Amino acid sequence: MSDRSLRGQRALVTGASSGIGEAIARAFADAGASVLVNYRSGRDDAERIVREIREKGGRGVPVHADVSKPEGCRRLFDAVQQELGGIDIVVANAGIQRDAAFTDLTLEDWRQVIDVNLTGQFLCAQEAVRCFRRQGLDTARSRALGKIVFTSSVHQAIPWAGHSNYASAKGGLKLLMETMAQELASEKIRVNAIAPGAIKTAINREAWESEAGRKRLLELIPYGRIGEPEDVAKVAVWLASDDSDYVVGTTMFVDGGMTLYPAFREGG
Ligand code: BGC
């Protein structure tokens, strides 16, 4: 991969005040992109991340917006225009979990997860495509008119008891991504997704915090370690760069083999 492979590009990362989004924002800045660091509740964290990006000579701007709301997404893209003068890369990453057994799941928790993890990504992607079209192609910057990377999950493929809202949102996201990729490729807009497995962040702290939890989790990961946010960020840099110019409509699983039916290692 070329060094500084995102030099001169303008990027937006939603849900970038923690976890995978934070790591992607930092890696983008390291690769030479100007980065809009979107947050909803983590203002202090977003400001600290931007400060640290600037201290390393990078360019970052924190922007508050709730991506599950159309006005939030519009505000985000107003900021894109104002702060960066346009956009080349959008990582629709913001996501939440509200877990419950199927019959205990409230409509409120069903809706919240669908609103953020699926509708929020749709709204953001729609604004992004409109923006790309207004700008037009600038091959000095990138071979593509624009790039969208969705943060999906292994649960776009693996059913997940006790998480029907989350798995439904991620399953929907898979076909949203593929449909968009098919519809927009002729305009030189590249749409792809990353499907992380168990990555050590706040969203799944309960699963990796205790020794017993870690042991149980590792049984699901053939590669024998829990992922770090940087494992995902490196793939995001590649997917956003011209190094992956011929990669269209693909989901990159970054999961240590979690999707390989590890229970079948013995027996079957
Ligand atoms: C979820 C995590 C979970 C991982 C693997 C992710 O999408 O957010 O909570 O640990 O999938 O199951």
Description:
The structure is a single chain. With 268 residues, the chain is an alpha/beta fold. The protein has one domain (10-264): Rossmann fold (3-Layer(aba) Sandwich). Helices cover 43% and strands 14% of the residues. The chain has 8 helices and 7 strands; from the N terminus they run E-H-E-H-E-H-E-H-E-H-E-H-H-H-E. The chain has helices spanning 19-30, 43-55, 70-84, 107-135, 164-184, 205-209, 211-218, 229-240, and strands at residues 10-13, 34-39, 59-64, 89-92, 146-151, 189-196, 251-254. Helix 5 links the parallel strand 5 and strand 6 (189-196). The chain is globular, with a radius of gyration of 18 Å. The model has no long low-confidence stretch (mean pLDDT 97). The structure holds beta-D-glucopyranose (BGC). Residues 97, 153-155, 197-198, 203-204, 207 line the site of beta-D-glucopyranose (BGC).
Essential attributes:
7-stranded parallel β-sheet, globular, alpha/beta, 8 helices, 7 strands, 268 residues, 43% helix, Rossmann fold, binds beta-D-glucopyranose
Mean pLDDT: 97
Q: Tell me the series of helices and strands, N- to C-terminal.
A: EHEHEHEHEHEHHHE
Which cofactor or ligand species appear?
beta-D-glucopyranose
Helix content: 40-55%
The N- to C-terminal Cα distance equals 40 Å
Largest sheet: 7 strands, parallel
Instruction: Give the tally of β-strands.
Output: 7
Low-confidence residue ranges:
none
CATH topology name, in short, is Rossmann fold
Number of helices: 8
Strand content: 5-15%
- What topology, given as strand order, has the largest sheet? 3-2-1-4-5-6-7
Instruction: Label the CATH architecture.
Output: 3-Layer(aba) Sandwich
Query: If you compute it from the alpha carbons, what radius of gyration comes out, rounded to the nearest whole angstrom?
Result: 18 Å
- The domain tally reads 1
CATH top level class name: Alpha Beta
Structural class: alpha/beta
